[in-house]
Automatic annotation (TrEMBL):
Name of protein: At1g61320/AtMIF1 LRR domain-containing protein
All residue ranges annotated as the At1g61320/AtMIF1 LRR domain in the record: 74-224, 246-335
Pfam families cross-referenced by the UniProt entry: LRR_At1g61320_AtMIF1 (PF23622)
InterPro entries assigned: At1g61320/At1g61330-like, LRR_At1g61320_AtMIF1, LRR_dom_sf
Natural source organism: Solanum commersonii (Commerson's wild potato)
UniProt superkingdom: Eukaryota
Length: 522
């Protein structure tokens, strides 16, 4: 009988560690499966440098089982004196874990942890207080990510824990704080000469952030909105001043969300950031008129904007990607030249109180003209495809031929213009699978590729069973527009509009019938 050779066990240890690292959410089931793969993998698994554990994987297990699993995962490092490169304890929903977490963090610091992440999912106002043992990682800690942790000063100390942490751990390159409290109004980030990424999300009572980080490449700040109904009213956010005092020549990515920064404050900060390539502004309702001067900027995104009056791209010669989501259209070809853009995502929505009373076509002529002028200005010779999505009608209009672009007269639209980064087959497949449209109308060019691709993709889509809520039951193809009747039986507004345009002669329409999949319990 031929000898069975275990080739898997002959792989270098670092490669096996990399394979194990692909499985991000470790649990009892995954451990059992990996341990039977080969003779060697069980011991390698036990001594893996990256310990990543999600309590949510133990929802049907007792707390004792979870604690034992974490203890067992860390024990080989104690017995063999192995380094713990990474300790990530995520989705922790049991407050009873506090004493165990203190112990696990202390153990990780003793074993030279580099990356520590704590994710708390406790309900209500419960927070986890970071133990003093974390200061022991001063010479090794390079990445720290904390969610719903408490830095408040206790009666035994007068020093802010976060400020002490920043002063104690100078090697940190990546610092992320989400939903934390006890930052004591003002946060001064200085002394972290290696800091490249700083993310602050909805941290309580944070009034000022001052940053001195000469190597900073990415900064993300999400304010604390005081009003929960974002789309009903413009929320008031907790005022927070942001001052970037260093890293002008290195910062490439800036994301501000729910910020109270004014137009003047924003322009003052932006003009200093000479290396900026990505700028994302979301829900910054205080800003009304945005002027952008940034020679290296490649991507500019404006999400969730209700009241911005004007966006003026005064100087952005390298801009390639533009995203916008809002009520108004604050840009035009006079304030932004789209001819160099390679991708654009535009979404327009109505205020909630107007959605039920809004009538398709009830839109100013100037709005339609501005929109059509803007989308026609793109350089379609690059291979750009223009997709219009009407969510209310569950229909899609695709322009492969840009000679005559018409935009439906409605304020509820998604417009997507891009050079497909993937093959056309994947582009069509993803549109069908992700959006589940009732109708896809295509305006093809003379030698259409996308028309043929859709024909082939719809055949494949019927054969494939998606792991989603709907199954594609039937597809029909015909020339001209096809009506997908609204719930009241009347002809859809989208259909009526298409019938009134010159596009009707050139359109090919795909009609999709979907059925809900019945989910069976095992």
């Amino acid at each position: 009988m031929a000898e069975i050779i275990d080739r898997i066990s002959e792989l270098p240890v670092h490669i096996i560690h990399a394979i194990l690292g692909r499985a991000c959410k470790y649990g009892l089931k995954e451990e059992a499966q990996i341990c039977v793969l080969s003779k060697t993998w069980k011991s390698i698994w036990g001594g893996r440098p990256d310990v990543i554990i999600f309590q949510s994987n133990f929802h049907n297990k007792s707390l004792e089982n979870f604690v034992q699993f974490v203890d067992d995962s860390l024990q080989p490092h104690v017995e063999q004196n192995l380094r713990i490169e990474t300790l990530r304890l995520m989705d922790l929903y049991s407050p009873e874990l506090v004493s165990h977490m203190d112990r696990w963090i202390e153990l990780a610091t003793k074993h030279n942890v580099r990356f520590l992440e704590i994710g708390i999912s406790w309900s209500g106002s419960l927070y986890y207080t970071i133990p003093d043992a974390i200061y022991s990682a001063a010479k090794t800690l390079t990445k720290l990510s904390l969610y719903k942790c408490n830095f408040e000063i206790n009666h035994n100390s007068t020093t802010n824990k976060l400020q002490k942490l920043i002063a104690t751990c100078p090697l940190i390159r990546d610092l992320k704080l989400s939903g934390c409290r006890g930052l004591q109004n003002n946060l001064y980030v200085s002394g972290l000469v290696n800091l490249e990424n700083l993310e602050l999300r909805a941290c309580e009572k944070l009034h000022k952030v001052e940053i001195r980080a000469p190597k900073l490449r990415k900064f993300l700040h999400v304010g604390s909105p005081l009003h929960k109904h974002r789309k009903t009213h413009e929320p008031e956010s907790l005022p927070c001043t942001i001052d970037i005092l260093d890293g002008y020549n290195t910062l490439k990515y800036l994301h501000l969300e729910d910020s109270t920064m004014t137009d003047q404050e924003f322009e003052y900060q932006l003009c200093k950031l000479t290396a900026l390539e990505v700028l994302i502004l979301k829900g910054c309702y205080v800003m009304k008129n945005i002027n952008v001067v940034s020679e290296k900027l490649k991507r500019f995104s404006l999400w969730d904007w209700g009241n911005v009056e004007k966006v003026n791209m005064m100087l952005a010669p390298n801009l390639k990607m533009f995203d916008f989501e809002g009520i108004k259209m604050p840009f035009s070809i006079s304030t932004m030249d789209p001819c160099k853009l390679e991708r654009a995502n535009l979404r327009f929505y109505l205020m909630p109180e107007l959605r039920n009373s809004y009538i398709f076509g009830d839109v100013e002529t100037s709005w339609c003209n501005n929109m059509q002028d803007f989308v026609r200005k793109f350089d379609y010779s690059k291979g750009l495809i223009f997709v219009i999505i009407c969510e209310k009608n569950n229909s899609i209009l695709i322009y492969e031929d840009p000679r005559e672009i018409l935009v439906p007269p409605t304020r509820e639209l998604k417009l997507h213009i891009e050079i497909p980064s993937m093959c056309l087959e994947s582009f069509a497949y993803n549109l069908i699978r992700n959006l589940h449209p009732k109708i896809v109308s295509i305006v093809p060019c003379t030698e259409s590729k996308i028309l043929q691709v859709f024909r082939e993709t719809t055949k494949e889509s019927r054969m494939k069973q998606y792991k989603q809520s709907k199954r594609l039951n039937e597809v029909s193809i015909q020339k001209g527009a096809v009506d997908n009747h609204e719930d009241n039986g009347r002809k859809s507004c989208m259909y009526s509009w298409l019938k009134s345009t010159s596009l009707i002669e050139r359109i090919t329409t795909f009609t999709f019938k979907w059925e809900k999949k019945v989910v069976t319990q095992d």
